[in-house]
Amino acid sequence: MGLTSKILPHYTYEDYVHWEGRWELIEGHPIAMSPLPVPRHQRVAAELVTEFTIALRKTNCNECKAYQPLDYKISEDTILQPDVLVVCGEIEKPFLDFTPGLVVEILSPSTALRDRNTKYQFYEQQGVKYYLIVDADKKTIEVYENINSKYELKEHTQKLDFILNEHCSITPNFDNIWN
């Protein structure tokens, strides 16, 4: 056991729900999510939710919904807030407690390292089928698909198909998200 694990507090969901502001909790360690993302980040997130919602409606997929940040409780001491999620199934608690079909993280200088490493590993381990890393400044989207419990970077094409489950397959149009 390292020195830091002996002296640093270890928080759980019970602690987390009482905190003010936006936080994530990673293996018991709190991560502040403020200040709020810059307007470009917010705009791209809103456009992505819109595009996923439109794609879901076009295919009559009623069991999957697109969400902006919500608490994704992986364990009692790990709660993440992805920028965008597509969830198949009913969320019956004040948090998501099952694996979403798709997660999007929009890079910012303060989160890029965590998004590309820590969160990448959590989403991969949890079996999130698709993980999108968006760079709003460079106007790029990296799409990772979970194949045999490992993420593989999908080749970039104009139209990407996302097979969320046996009933829902969508092809969102990302052309307009950079406006």
Task: Describe the structure using short key phrases.
globular; two-stranded antiparallel ribbon; about 25% helix; about 180 residues; tt1808, chain A; alpha+beta; 6-stranded mixed sheet
In short:
The chain is an alpha+beta fold and 179 residues long.
Task: Describe, in plain words, how this protein is organized in 3D.
This protein has 179 residues and is an alpha+beta fold. It has one domain (37-170): Alpha-Beta Complex (tt1808, chain A). The protein has helices at residues 3-7, 13-16, 39-58, 112-126; strands at residues 23-26, 29-32, 64-67, 72-75, 78-80, 84-88, 102-106, 130-135, 140-147, 150-153, 162-163, 169-170. It has a six-stranded mixed sheet, with helices on both faces. It has a two-stranded antiparallel sheet with strand order 1-2.
